Fold:
Amino acid sequence: MHSGIYISQSDARPMYLQIMEQIKQRVAVGDWPRGQEIPSIRQLAVELRVSVITVKRAYLELERESVIVTQHGKGSTVAADPDLSPRLYDRELAEHIDQGVRLAELLGLTQDELVVRVRERWRQASFAGSARPDKQEQDKQEEELV
Amino acid sequence: MSDRNPNAAISDFATQELAIQDVTIQNLAGHDLAIEMEGVSKRYPHFALQNISLNLPHGSIMGFIGPNGAGKSTTIRILMGLVHQDQGEVRVLGRRMPAEQVEAKREIGFVSEDMRLYGSATLAWHMELIRSIFPSWNQVYADHLCARFDLKRQQKIKGLSHGQRVKAALLLVLARRPRLLILDEPTTGLDPVARREVLDELMEVLTDSSRTILFSSHNTLDVEQISDQITFIDRGRIIDSADKESYLDRWRRLRLEIPPGVVTPALPGIVEVGGSGRFSVLTINRFDPAMPALCQDAGATVQSVDRMTLEEIFISNVHSRRERQAV
Structure:
């Protein structure tokens, strides 16, 4: 089985994180269904040309996050109930917000100014169809429809 | 049970036999180690290898890095029994070196830059020679490698480029399927495509969890990508030897803005302090996630916390050590 996972050398994130993220994506969209057997650590290491210890680390962290289950001598499977979507992206969101806050400080923005910038981006993104309009706006639109 | 295929019983028996053999092999090796060096020293007029201790478990791959003249090749030669240590214990695949080197070498594949093939003989002739000496030679695998490395068997060695020679030497070693590969700078001087082919075949070797690789390299990218263990050597001493993930995890670069009058806390493991004026860059080799908050609490602004590549760690490690020694 070919995993289709791809490691980018120019990606600044460590390789184990790249592997984790791509496995989570496969699980989240159902490409790797619940309970399905996934490649062994060694198989994936050989396929990706990365060290066994790197893949082992990715699997250990995925297990800690309950995305996969590893049984000794039996290999790893996708967890029966991987509670993915909220937990999967929550930490990533927190990291991006931290980075946003840091850059805002560098630019000398106030808290409110940063919030305004976030709203602006949100509006542009929802025009482009990639983000939901926020709840209030949605309610307003629905009221208008009624 | 009665309807079981008699062959299954035979193969069960074979598995048991193998299991018993495995146990003996492990007993021989002491505890699952392919390479053990303990307190090894070797003195030359202008260079000394000092108190080298090194462990490499079966089934893993170790990248051995260090600047030119650090002692990588000398260490490798001691492992191969080509140079005899003045002091210390060396066991390779459970065999004491150099005393039991003949037995050990049957199961070791060794490739180094100065390895000589016969210039006026063809690759096919070399393959035949190795096949006649080593019963473990696998012709199917040798053919596969010939194709993978894009080598022509009828070509004479003297007509090969540097890269082709390296690949030919690797082929002759890999096709014996040795339990331990010791490779001195296997990717040096190879073009990117050839380097990739070589790394691919090395990873392929590790599909078998009982086989082990030690390779030295200047190319930190190769080491960072494929090795499980990293060993750092400088000026004849081992500076660090650790599993790659926890090693890379320990190193960070903290960029701080420190207002006048603020004193940053004394953090453990600061290797280098750079920057100028209000801006300071700390290189830390014992990073703890609590450190940025400690700096903030002291009144400094943490601008970034960056992971480091093995290359950056390598340079920082060697620099800081040289500076300290100069003082």
About this structure: Chain B touches chain A at residues 59-61, 199-200, 203-204, 206-207, 209, 221, 225-229, 243-245, 248, 301, 303-304, 307 (CB under 8 Å). Chain B has a mean pLDDT of 88. The radius of gyration of chain B is 24 Å.
